[in-house]
Please model this.
Amino acid sequence: MLLRYKNVAAATNEILAAVYGPDESLLPTICEHWPSRWFKNHPEFAVRREKSIKLKRQRAMNVDQIREFFNKYKAAVDEYKIKTADI
Model:
């Protein structure tokens, strides 16, 4: 499991909720910077930042790669004599 700031924060808040019980008026939560301090105090763990899916899509949507894919597709259709009705 990858450790991310939000995962550590969520797990910590769940533990606090379990310890303090159902009375929400007494329920403490951690502050925004608590996970970063936790990672500083526990160097055996490393955080992995999330990368935007948009960036991955931009890298994948290379015109040359798309052209190469369709050229291979057309070659396979021609080689195996695949008819449009079969697709």
Notes: Residues 3 and 46 are 7 Å apart (CA to CA). The helical segments are 5-20, 34-41, 53-60, 63-79.
